[in-house]
Design brief:
With about 160 residues, the chain is α+β, with helices and mostly antiparallel strands. The chain contains 7 helices and 4 strands; from the N terminus they run ααααβααβββα. A 4-stranded mixed beta sheet has the order 2-1-3-4, covered by helices on one side. The structure holds FE2/S2 (inorganic) cluster.
Length: about 160
């Protein structure tokens, strides 16, 4: 069966598109809806969104590949996104990523064998004042230390 939005998500799609003066301007929020519905944005999802938005799959693919919060591959239940932009970098983001990598036994861009965790590095998440920080799914974890990260990961297992 072809990939398509559930009736509820299709209603949200229509509401989203109607909030913008031009349909094409709603592409990013529609992609976020699609990711929530389908889990990730593989080729079939990209082509479906392209049809809905009356845009070429290449253009939709270009937008998907630009934004780190959009995933083209399946991800773990807990998507750990460590900010690597300058303020977080100056406060130890790289070392923190290495710590998480070592703790979970995966490299950046990989998912644990049990499918629970995916580790990514992302650009500024607009919480620079509480660097270093990470986002896991929709939640922010700030002013991180190894101890805090250990606690957070343990609470998610
Ligand atoms: S630099 Fe990390 S949140 Fe802005």
């Amino acid at each position: 069966m072809a990939l398509e939005f559930s009736p509820e998500t299709y209603k949200k799609f229509e509401e989203t598109v109607n909030r913008y003066p031009k349909k094409e301007a709603a592409l990013l929020p529609v992609l976020c809806l699609a990711q929530k519905e389908f889990g990730h944005l593989g080729q079939e999802a990209i082509e479906y969104v392209a049809r809905l938005m009356e845009q070429s799959p290449a253009r939709v693919c270009g937008v998907v590949s630009f934004y780190t919060m959009l995933n083209t591959k399946p991800i773990g239940w807990h998507h750990i996104q460590v900010c690597r932009t300058l303020p977080c970098a100056l406060r130890g983001a790289e070392r923190l990523t290495s710590f998480i990598s070592k703790t979970l036994g995966i490299e950046v861009g990989q998912t644990t064998a049990d499918g629970r965790f995916t580790l990514s590095e992302v650009e500024c998440l607009a919480s620079c004042g509480t660097a270093p920080m990470m986002q896991i799914n929709d939640d922010y974890y700030e002013n991180l230390t190894d101890e805090k990260v250990t606690e957070v990961l343990a609470s998610l297992k």
